[in-house]
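Suppose a colleague, Dr. K., hands you the sequence of a protein chain of 279 amino acids and asks what its three-dimensional shape might be. Before reaching for any lab equipment, you can write down a predicted structure in token form. Begin with the sequence itself:
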Amino acid sequence: MSKIFKILFYTGSFFFIFLCCDKAATINSKDDSATITQELSITPDVKMIPIKGGKYLPFYGDSSLVKVEDFLLDERPVTNAEFLDFVKKNPKWKRSNVKGLFADETYLKDWQDDETLPKDADPDAPVTFVSWFAAKAYAKSAGKRLPTLDEWEYVAMADEESANARNKPTYSAHLINLYNKKYREKNKVKLSQPNYYGVYNMFDLTWEWTDDFNSIMTTSDSRTSEFDDKGLFCASAATSAADVLNYASFMRYAFRSSLKANYTVENLGFRCAKDLKEN
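The predicted structure, expressed as tokens, is then:
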């Protein structure tokens, strides 16, 4: 399978990413729907934190504020043990059964077999090597969904003391230091301090899937003004930033823009969300 070729340019105080990727595979909408919607239920024991919505300035775009509604967010990422329970109850998501359309060849790569976690892996560490399709299926099985990009970034503005720490001089530098730590994904969840909302591990363990992970990019012919799962593959030519000083956010958007929905990565996990009105 061909991978993405990335070039990062730095000019003055602006960053640009140019991405070249292979042509997206065509997804049969019937197959996609059947795979994502027919999951047996699971009941993971994880606290969901109520997040009071509001308006925030995204890292990308035209400097317009975006409104985020009230919602619920898992206090921590999905763990190895929880995903193991999911695949046992939903065998089509086992490593030997999953279709290549929904997960690439490195899906659950480090597991010893279909139902055995990686050797020396902590069951309470975040699960990785999981595709967007698998993460979305897990969330649906749990009666939840993946957080939107705006919901995730809205919560990501917080540090331990305030809901919006982006103007603090040390905020971005601290996050970059966390991102640069090797093998951070192997650590147990909830060992670090929670943020202002009571949410753990937004930065210190893994990157995380969002439902619309590359929605800032062109997903299809813009003349149709339509969005669907089938377009979540190749990024567009470049990305722009509203706050070019927040390099940690830039790193996240650069990473997301390099993904396809069936990609799996050794330090990419996920957590679940839910509309507050559904609770």
